[in-house]
Design brief:
Strand content: over 45%
Low-confidence stretches: none
Distance between the termini: 40 Å
Largest sheet: 7 strands, mixed
Shape: globular
Number of strands: 11
Order of helices and strands: EEEEEEEEEEE
Radius of gyration: 13 Å
Mean pLDDT: 97
Oligomer: single chain
Length: about 120
């Protein structure tokens, strides 16, 4: 059974930083691309960042230069470093793995940016 568990969210002031983690069980992540999405209240879920199996990365324009996605295959974990946070980054952040047939999502972790 594939499970994704996100953690690391919280309340942070504008300009602050957080590091999100996504621990995957039930499937080795090394051969799969992984992605982080987010969903703000009243908005559609959007892609934040993606990392390929070989380490190539892609970011939404709104987070380029501020967020960094990385992976540690030995720990079956994907990270998202969030720097220079803005109020508009407030959302639930979700981790995604697609194995070619199914989308596997975690339960999400809340990030709130507020003074």
């Amino acid at each position: 059974q594939v499970q994704l568990v996100e953690s690391g969210g919280g309340l942070v002031q504008p300009g602050g930083s957080l590091r999100l983690s996504c621990v995957v069980s039930g499937i080795p992540i090394s051969i799969y691309a992984m992605a982080w999405y987010r969903q703000a209240p009243g908005k559609q879920r959007e892609l934040v960042a993606r990392i390929g199996s070989g380490g190539s990365t892609k970011y939404a324009d709104s987070v380029k230069g501020r967020f960094t996605i990385s992976r540690e295959n030995t720990k079956n974990t994907v990270y998202l470093q969030l720097n220079s946070l803005k109020s508009e980054d407030t959302a639930v952040y979700y981790c995604l793995l697609n194995d070619g047939r199914y989308d596997y999502w975690g339960q999400g972790t809340q990030v709130t940016v507020s003074s």
